[in-house]
Amino acid sequence: MRIADYAATDLIATGLEARDKDDLLQKMVGMLVHSGRVRQSDVLMGELQKRERVMSTGIGGGIALPHALSNEVENLEVVFARTSEPLEFEALDSSPVDLVVMLVGPKLASNVYVKLLARVSRLLQGEEFKQRLRDAASPEEVLEVFRSAE
């Protein structure tokens, strides 16, 4: 299971500015819309917000892993954002978030989606991996961090 197979430079933002969690999620969904990978942004946004209401996807250590299945997305996609400033995300450890890896995909891809979610979650536990994501200066460098971790 390779993260880089589901990521692309046009779905990676370094230094993303956001006011709050919803603004951040909206901007990341906007990246999917701009790239033509999502049909109805409001439907996908609703699925992401519904998941956040169940329990925050801020997993601690400055990391958030928002995710949702929606038929508005044709393929499994990984969207990455490093925020310009850490922001409140209602994380489990109450720490602000600066690294966000969003996973979205069609409902029929649930089996692969769960495996990819587990893979990303395991990688994000590693301090060296997180630091390399924080140090990456461009989308290409972030993609290389994903590639080299596998």
Task: Please explain how this structure is put together.
It is a single chain. By secondary structure, the protein is an alpha/beta fold. It has a single domain, classed as Mannitol-specific EII, Chain A (3-Layer(aba) Sandwich), CATH 3.40.930. The chain has five helices and six strands; from the N terminus they run βααβββββααα. It has helices at 21-34, 41-54, 110-123, 127-135, 139-148; strands at 12-16, 58-60, 63-64, 67-69, 77-87, 97-105. Strands 1, 2, 3, 4, 5 and 6 form a six-stranded mixed beta sheet that branches. The longest helix is centred in the N-terminal third of the chain and has 14 residues, at 21-34. It is globular, with a radius of gyration of 14 Å. The mean pLDDT is 94.
Which SSEs are present, and which pair or pack?
Blueprint (H helix, E strand, L loop, with lengths): L11 E5 L4 H14 L6 H14 L3 E3 L2 E2 L2 E3 L7 E11 L9 E9 L4 H14 L3 H9 L3 H10 L2
Parallel strand pairs: 1-5, 3-6, 4-6
Antiparallel strand pairs: 2-3, 5-6
Helix pairs in contact: 1-2
